What does this fold into?
Amino acid sequence: MKINKKVKQAVKQVILITVLLIGTFLMLSFLTYEKDVNDTEKTLPSISDYVLHYKPMVEKYAREYNVSGYVDVLLAMMMQESGGRGADPMQSSESYCGKKGCINDPELSIKQGAYYFSKTLEDADGDLHLAVQSYNFGLGFIDYVQQEKGTYSEEAAIDFSREMYENAPDQSIYTCLRKEAEQYEACYGDIYYVRSVMEYRDVIAMELRNW
It folds into this structure.
């Protein structure tokens, strides 16, 4: 009887330890899952309803200029440029008339934006990142990369921005959009434009799949 009692106590202890271990494992798994979900939610940028509202119009002009496969990119650029707000949501006035503020019609802005993107994509020989950064920097960036660097990189964008800023007749017209730009003295345009647009594009692509 004494042996049986000791065996029973040992079995109970084993069961108790097993239950505690399983409970601890499940709790840690749950906390890890919650952390991963929260981290994902924090890192994903949000897309404004204003931008998504323009999806049909963007699709229309993307078809017109043979860039239908880049609707998500155009919407991402709009998100980066203006969040879809204002009369020039694609901020395409400069490519249209050579100065800011000459477009006061969202449809014209989107039409010009789609056209100008198609032009950058063509001149960049289909290099999407180079085309996107050139939407922000201007077509001169394509020539710079193709002649000096070979392919697009963030380093090339920083170098070009720095050179353009250094050689600008009036540096006061430029504002460093990011702290990193101040560090590099690269205040012409947005040196991380491609990075931001591609982050928005990933989220927009998921949004469009749910439409």
The chain has eleven helices and no strands. The chain has two domains: 1-43, 49-209.
